[in-house]
Amino acid sequence: MIIKKIEPQGFCGGVKKAIVILEKAISDKTIARPIYMLGSLIHNSHIIDEFKNKGVIMLDDNIEKEAMIDMINEGTIIISAHGVSPLIYQKAKEKNLNIIDTTCPFVKMIHDRVISNLNDKKEIIYIGNKNHPETKGVIGIDDKINLVSNKADINNLELADDNPYVTNQTTLSIYDIKEYYDLILKKYPNAFLDNKICDATTKRQDAVANQKYADLCIIVGDKKSSNTKKLYEVSKNIAKINTILIDNKNDLIDYDFKDINKINISSGASTPDYLVDEVINYLENRL
């Protein structure tokens, strides 16, 4: 049995930054309590559970951020790595809540550029999953932003200008996004395209797309994680390799490894190294 890790692995820079900031807040006794997380800090249930066990109050991802703020009257709020709209900051300040911001630098850059282009009276097109917190944070900047979540949305665009500013969610597929940008350019030839797929996402997808053949590729990560799901799709649809997405080693217990002689392993940007190591150890002991 040959088991090969597809590099890069481990947390991306934005995830590392978010975890370090929250760890410091927990250990700082001067930080106002209780400490609330506005939805998942990152999309990995194992990391979230660790922080919950340290006393951080986790608010349900299914609740809108505005409603979360309405539920909190004291203490500290943690802005997740996905970012939030300006309204959230405003409401938190009005309630005199302490704010700890772990927004990913790539996401913060998008917010700044969107706001700058809005101030320049440019029309904005944002490509993203409408249910993803990163997308909700950007769309919440201004109701004039045009959200594109599927190709049909491009056909429905009716913009006054032919040179809109176009950007995107950082964790989308590098292959899908090209198709979206090509379609937008056909409709708006003078559009300014600002592709903001983050480096970590790009490198991992490129590595998975160009992986050497294996009988099976295992993607380790939370099924809520956008970048993890995209790795699965790239391995399956671009590399054309038999691929499964698992949360941890327990998901392999019932898997039939008959005729599986070579396995490649990749992981999402919010997947801790120890989960991948546990998967590898399990495979080495089982096979």
Structure, explained:
The structure is a single chain. By secondary structure, this protein is of the alpha/beta class. The chain is built from eleven helices and twelve strands. It has helices at 13-27, 45-53, 65-71, 86-94, 105-119, 133-139, 151-155, 174-187, 199-209, 226-238, 273-286; strands spanning 2-5, 35-37, 57-58, 76-79, 98-101, 124-127, 146-148, 165-168, 192-193, 216-220, 243-246, 262-267. Strands 1-12-10-11 form a four-stranded parallel β-sheet, sandwiched between helices. It has a four-stranded parallel β-sheet with strand order 3-2-4-5, sandwiched between helices. Helix 8 links the parallel strand 8 (165-168) and strand 9. The protein is flat and about 60 Å long. The mean pLDDT is 96.
Summary tags:
287 residues; alpha/beta; 4-stranded parallel sheet
Low-confidence stretches: none
Structural category: alpha/beta
Query: Largest sheet, if any?
Result: 4 strands, parallel
Rg from alpha-carbon coordinates: 20 Å
Strand neighbour order, sheet with most strands = 1-12-10-11
Q: How many strand segments?
A: 12
Mean pLDDT across every amino acid position: 96
Which helices and strands appear, and what pairs or packs with what?
Layout: E1 2-5, H1 13-27, E2 35-37, H2 45-53, E3 57-58, H3 65-71, E4 76-79, H4 86-94, E5 98-101, H5 105-119, E6 124-127, H6 133-139, E7 146-148, H7 151-155, E8 165-168, H8 174-187, E9 192-193, H9 199-209, E10 216-220, H10 226-238, E11 243-246, E12 262-267, H11 273-286
Parallel strand pairs: 1-12, 2-3, 2-4, 4-5, 6-7, 6-8, 8-9, 10-11, 10-12
